[in-house]
Amino acid sequence: MNRLRELRKQHGLTQDDMGQRLGVQKAAICKYETGRVPIPNEAIMELCDMFDVTADYLLGRDTVTPIFKERSSVSSMFMPVTDTVGVPLVGRVHAGLPILADENITEYIPLPSSDVIAGEYFYMEVEGDCMTGEFIPEGALVLVRMQSRVENGQIAVVRIEDEVLLRKVKWMQSHLVLIPSNPKYEPMIVSGGDVEIIGRVLEVRIRGL
C-alpha cells in the first residue's frame, strides 16, 4: 500500500490540490491512493520532490521513516510519527464517488500499524439492524479490508448500484446471495447487474466500549 494519502493528509492537501500540482483530475488522485491505478513514474518523481521522501518510502517498500524538512511547497508540517495509523471512517456514501473519496470520510480512527500491515482499510458506521444476529448493531463501526472476493459465510460490504450493504455472503453457482442475520429481513439474490464486493469485515467496534 503506497503512502500517498498519508503524505497528502499530513501536509493538509486535498485531492483537488494534489491534482492541480500533478496536472491530473481529482479522480486520478483517488485511484492512485487506493492502488487501483499505479502512480506514473513522472508523478512519482514529482511527489518525491514535493514531500522530500524516497520513491521506496512513497510506494510503501521502505519502512524507514525519512527525516522531513520544512518546504515552502507544502501547506503544513508533518505530524509526529507514531506506531499508529489513521484509518478513515466512511460516513454515508455519496452516489458515484469511490468509497474512500474525501467527501465520504468523516474522521480518521487510530489503529496500531501492526493491525493493518498489508492492504487498504476503512471503518464504516453501520446503518440499520440487518446484522444484529452477528452482534453488529446500528451505530457500530466495522473495520473493512478492501478486497473484491470473499469466501462463503464471511461478512462483506457490497455495493449494488448506488447502495452499499453489509451482509453475509454466499456463492451459489453464478448467483451471489446476501444474507442478513436478522430474521425480519429476507436474503437477497443477485444474479447480475452493477454489483461489486468492496471488502471483508474484520472487526466490530462499539463506540464507548
Order of H and E elements: HHHHHEEEEEEEEE
Instruction: Return the structural class.
Output: alpha+beta
What integer is the average pLDDT? 80
CATH level-3 fold name of the largest domain = Umud Fragment, subunit A
Q: What's the quaternary structure here?
A: single chain
State the fourth-level CATH superfamily of the largest domain.
Answer: Umud Fragment, subunit A
In the CATH hierarchy, what is the architecture of the largest domain at level 2? Ribbon
What is the end-to-end distance? 30 Å
- Binned, the helix content reads 10-25%
Radius of gyration from CA coordinates: 19 Å
Identify the overall geometry. Answer: elongated
CATH class category label of the largest domain: Mainly Beta
Number of domains: 2
Give me the side-by-side strand order of the main sheet.
2-1-3-4-9-5-6-7-8
The low-confidence parts are 64-81
**Discrete helix count:** 5
Main beta-sheet annotation: 9 strands, mixed
**Count of strand segments:** 9
Approximate strand percentage: 25-35%
What do these coordinates show?
With 209 residues, the protein is α+β, with helices and mostly antiparallel strands. It folds into two domains: 4-71, Orthogonal Bundle (434 Repressor (Amino-terminal Domain)), CATH 1.10.260; 85-205, Umud Fragment, subunit A (Ribbon), CATH 2.10.109. Helices cover 19% and strands 29% of the residues. It has a nine-stranded mixed sheet, with no helix packed on it. Strand 6 (163-172) and strand 7 form a beta hairpin. Helix 2 (15-22) crosses helix 3. The chain is elongated and about 55 Å long. The relative contact order is 0.12.
